[in-house]
Amino acid sequence: MSVRSESVARKAAPIGQNPETEITAAAYPSPAYAWYVVGVLMLAYTVSFIDRQILNLLVGPIKRDLAINDTEMSLLAGLAFALFYTFLGLPIGRMVDRRSRRGIIIVGIVVWSLFTAACGLAGKFWHLFLTRIGVGVGEAALSPAAYSLVADYFPPHRMGTAMGVYNMGIFVGSGLAYIFGGLVIGLVSGAEHMVLPIVGEVFAWQVVFFAVGLPGLLVALLMFTVREPIRQGIKAVRQADGTLAVKAVPVSEVVRYIGGNAKAVLCHNVGFALLSLVGYGVATWLPSFFIRAHGWTPAEIGFAFGIVQLTAGVIGVIFGGWLGDVLKQKGIADGRLRVGMVAAVLGVPFAVAMPFVGDGNMVLALSIATTFFYTMCFGAAPAAIAEIMPNQMRGQASAVYLFIVNLIGLGLGPTVVALVTDFVFRDENMVGYSLALVAGIALPLAAAVLWAGCAPYRQALERVKTYTA
């Protein structure tokens, strides 16, 4: 706990009184500093998505040099990363609810940055598969801790907007990955190999991983400027040295509480995961669609789709978080779920139409609308799960949410599109139709699941008000 947190907590319960203190009256940190913290966290998320998404623009040269197909490529883009990213998020979520969230994030940044750079050393499919797992291991530490921090820095009626700004990192990072990756590919396109100091001869695409991975270590240093906020509305135990430690909630109690809200949690997680499935499928395969079907170069689509991510993606995620806050303030308790429903329904025609339009520029225009709608969920969803969970369970509940949304979205999204391309259409040039088919099924299903979760979600909001550890 930070010096600021301890000083405020001591006023609530001086040494010598009841050792168990409920911190319910602690003021939120100043808005200026709270937004600074969100900015640092957003920067970390941006770096994580650059490291995660850069692979999507390197599909062609990696397939060529490692002799792999679309399905194997999708495993590198999705499952290799998502498998450990999702499973390790669960124990990390438990740590988030008890230990320094800043420290957890710092360790995670160092791990994923080093493994991203290590991807530049891969000479075989399995080498790259293992290093992508390492990237996932490191990145698993970020969002559960960040969601918990944001929830303690902002009051409930501001939390959705703050979550939206944090999740801007997804699309700022993706956009920069596409733009930077496209520029680098353009620079090295005339050379199949390059020679680097110490490392020696590498494929040209491997240089990209060194360039995007190592700068992340600077962000880890910046995280030392972030203070741990007071955990709002929880019970803490005063230790012998006078400091306060968070009173741990047994795992069985967490499981029992989530189980008591099972329908609300499940519908929330699965509904937003299906939106995420479409998002990650588009992010992974849309560049290849432009390259294969419209003859664009990697540099051209990298720059164009990067701009789409930086504009439509950023606006969509902030708008979704803001709209959830507005609906909440207007008394619509399940407003954040309704944001997801609206986004899913409105996104269908744009996503389905893309492969049926012959002009590449028109397809890019459709991708702007598609991106805007599916990104709305990234501001609303984390705020929605945070507000139905007690503070001392938020890290674990966020980890469960990230487990499901990333296993379905990130783990299956790219692979489902690739499987449809390889085994249904049996033609890699039909990847655009694969995207349309997957979106046409997943988006209406997402809206239906979220609708089914509205009533249970409202009940969960009432239940959390009466919870005592």
TrEMBL record:
Q: Enumerate the GO terms in the molecular function aspect.
A: transmembrane transporter activity
Compartments annotated for it: namely: Membrane
Q: Membrane topology per the record?
A: Multi-pass membrane protein
Q: Does Transport appear among the keywords?
A: yes
Q: Does the keyword Nucleotide-binding apply?
A: no
InterPro entries with a match to the protein in the record: MFS, MFS_dom, MFS_spinster-like, MFS_trans_sf
**PANTHER family per UniProt:** PROTEIN SPINSTER, SPINSTER
The name this protein carries in UniProt is MFS transporter
